[in-house]
Amino acid sequence: MLKKFRKWYHNLFLKSNQVFREQQIAVKNHIVEIKDAKYFIGKAMVTDIPELLKIEKSVYDGQTPWNYTTMLKELKREQDRLYLVIRYHDQLVAFIGCAMFDTKRECHITNLAVQKEFQHRGLAYYLMTVIIKKARLINYDQITLEVRSSNYRAQHLYSDLGFYRTGIKNNYYVDNQEDAIDMALDISEMDSRPNNYGL
Question: Name one Pfam family in it (predicted).
Fold first, then answer.
């Protein structure tokens, strides 16, 4: 009896939520213009992993916080993960990833990286706004992330988007035991306060 109830509940509520989320976070490959330059944006695929790792190496001084296996596991979780890439002349130059948690109504940014030669061109800002819009479409309440305590540029970007500090994780990063700053954006309050990114 309990098994039948669980199946009925899943089909009626959870499955419909899942279908709704998949429809709202769907991304069609297309061209976007960011600061007078045209880029290709689309969902990340398994064949992108070598280029994703290459960007991580360029950003993290030769290190790759995530290896091939971790990336592969993330990209295969299409129901509760969203990974986007930006290409310029067929070269992968930036990407972002997030995990979605229906029970907490929370989207967590897992990764954001822009190849060094393409930084300061608005790509990270653009990718963040895409994720924020998607999280709003699926009626989530909050977006969260961690950022290195020494990465003031990223902290400034997130603050500009409305994120605020919620805590700190001591010795969070494995490579150098650097602290992570927890930040959050309350999407539910977004309509009642001004912002500068057209959401």
Answer: Acetyltransf_1
